[in-house]
Amino acid sequence: LTDGTWEDKVNQIRLYSGEKYELVNELAAGSICAVIGLSQTKPGEGLGIEEGLKTSELVPVLSYQIILPEDCVPMEILPKLRQLEDEEPELHIIWDEQLQEIQTQIMGDIQLEILQSLIQSRFGIDVQFNIGKILYKETIANIVEGVGHFEPLGHYAEVHLKLEPGAPGSGLKFAVECSEDLLAKNWQRLILSHLEEKIHKGVLTGSPITDMKITLVSGRAHNHHTEGGDFREATYRAVRQGLKEAESILLEPYYSFQLELPEQMIGRAMADIDRMYGSCEISETNGEMAVLVGTSPVINMRNYHREVIAYTRGQGRLSCYMSGYQPCHNADEVIANIGYDSERDLNDPTGSIFCAHGAGFSVSWDQVKQHMHLESYLQSKLDSSEKSYQSQNPSSKKKVTDDELDYDLLNQAVNANKGKKFSWSRRKKAMEKPDENPVTINNNHEPKDEYLLVDGYNVIYAWPELQELTKDNMDAARIKLLNCLCSYQGVKKCQVVVVFDAYRVPGHLEEISDYHNIKVVFTKEAQTADEFIER
Question: How far is CA 514 from CA 267, 282, 386, 401, 429, in A?
Fold first, then answer.
């Protein structure tokens, strides 16, 4: 390929006629031939400017263990089976490292018989199969935020992912809603690649997850300690932690079927379908034969064609097609039979690793959010929504919660200096001389809480020590400033609000969150910190 990732030389061009062929040096467009010498091609692959064929839309729903003869070594047979997999895209060959066995994922019994015959004719190996099992999947029913943290000594990464249910059959979709002020673009791309590279397991049965949108909403790296592998660990753990918090749903494959049989046997067939937790309706009748169409779980329809042949005396005909995944009709029974324990799965942990006193320690999934370093994305959005609701409905008669009291406090801080502008020199003076009182809000001539509103980036770039930190990592400078202001608030007992402008971030919405004992604001797009403080 001239613009691909590999090159091969064609040694021969053959024109076949039955078993005979003719060697030629060139062919005109539209001719059919065979070429010798290509070692890296795959079925359906387009060469040169040709596009490859679309992959098969058939999804395997059954898994069987391939039972080899006693004198066969699995790792010697596996490459041969991979050849068959390359030739037949609908065939999936899997090596289960934990069980040390070869498995195949296919559509049904007929394909199984063909595979058995093919292995015998091509490789002279007589294989058998076990009874097989259904390939389940999992999804979620609600929106959650998954948090993954990986911080053994000398490493650091934290990832926040929003998991939300998708439409049936939509598969997995990935997106980013994370500000580059929080996490650099290269780290964001790395996290997305880690999300896409792995088949993520659910927490009910360990089956693959599907029909879900996973969005990167927040994250943090360390300038000196973060490596690529740290974000891989944090990303995987964030997915698992979110799944543990979510309301998970077990999905099973369903067949769409068409059953043609004598009209007098419709009652028997409809009773069978109902017993198999399916649904059906009569699509047509002609006096002698009738046609039923409907859907039913694959596990209940696997061998039903044999029953149809038996009770119709060979007159019935059943056709089944894969129609997708739906909630499992006997989920509790399946989960109990599989017996998967997500918290004991060492290959896919649900907890995170934090560091304290120079050593890393493990934190279980239900305690991760009590140790995480970044604020909750969903909670900040909820807070903003409730704040907006209160501002639009000031006379709303509802119970005031602690969170709402915080919003009122922030509203007072935002409106305290309305109509006033403070110069940088005055803000700097307040920072350098903590004995001076910050701005005091007086309303109706009664003493009120004191507020200090700080333009974060102005302070950072005017403070030489913090300005030096920005050359390596803006996050480090921000955290340094916030920690200083936390100490200042502890001494003065005033209400500190630090404002960072995000006016250059396209589509950025106003963000308000807590950082220990102070408030932190990131303005919306096209709004400076001065404008926010003035407002």
Answer: 65, 61, 15, 16, 25
